[in-house]
Amino acid sequence: MTTDHERRDLADIEALTVEFWYRVDHENGVGVADLFTEDGVYSVANGQSAGRAAIAESYVNRAARGPRLSRHVQTNLRVRFESTSEARGLSILTLWADDGEAPLDLKMPISVTDVEDEYVKESDGTWRIRHRHLSQVFLGDRPGVLPMGSPTEPTQGGR
Q: Domains plus CATH for the chain?
């Protein structure tokens, strides 16, 4: 049975995941790194960014490519609480994205992806992402553009 405390925590985690994609789609990724723990990891099959600074840098590099329009549509968030301060989530992400500015021609999504999250409730009571991993289930014909990894060896894996 779900407690009132778990319902509040679930609402906070849902708000966190919505805020993440809002910042990517509407603020060019500015502030996304703040949603992670200090040592948080954002990973895809062929790379990762570890720590807030590296995550923030990946979005600076994404923005440097020029205008990018994206809409990350997240659904079916399922959260399992491991303890009062740790939880895991799984959701489905459908992504429409392309270079340029609105309005762009409508195309098929570039991917359908499983999003696996580990969440931590920090001492200030704020839920943050400790690890977010994207596992692509269906791929379209356009590549992702979020550079993952160290600046000397970036990989194009995130969308």
A: 4-158 (3.10.450.50)
